[in-house]
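3.2 Worked example (two chains)
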Amino acid sequence: MRKYFAVVFFLSIVSLSTLAQSYPQMEIFGGYQYNRQDSGGFCPQSNGWNASITGNFSKFRGLTGDFGGLLL
């Protein structure tokens, strides 16, 4: 039982340090995606992109737009 309380105490102390962290007002992400499907000898493949932008209103709330498409 003491080990349980020690673990809970340790996790609560460690989590207190995250309260002091600031949060970014905006986050932007861009990436590349590759898809390959094997379906009985025919292997279609595609290249694409993905992007997202997030606006953070507070530490726990934000709005995200997520976009993606194929490269021709």
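3.2.1 Second chain
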Amino acid sequence: MTKQDHIAYWLNMSRRDWETVDVLYTGGRFLHALFFVHLALEKLLKAHWVKDNLEDIPPAIHNLVQIYDQTELDLSTEETDVLQGMNQYNITGRYQDYKDKAYQRVTQHYANEKIQECKVLRDTLLRKLQ
């Protein structure tokens, strides 16, 4: 596979995850929707990682800020704050004890705000990849 093939792979996977966000949100699965927002952003960042590094296989990590730090992206403080805030949904989406605590605070309104915030960041990451 070429470098472009690897980037296309991560973009396609990110697009699929973003489509899943809508399905989960519409179905009232707000916490799970935020987990998939995290996945979509992670895969976009991994596409950037591939673009900006000699290797084609990004590190097997899920921390959005750590992946970002290994790219040549130059995001604003507000944008990196969004990445940092979304890291919690990587853990929350995977472990039941975290899910149980988070279900109470992740309301439809809260999830919608986070999704809209991340949609702006997603658009920025897509634009910067071109």
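3.3 Remarks
The first helix runs from residue 3 to 26.
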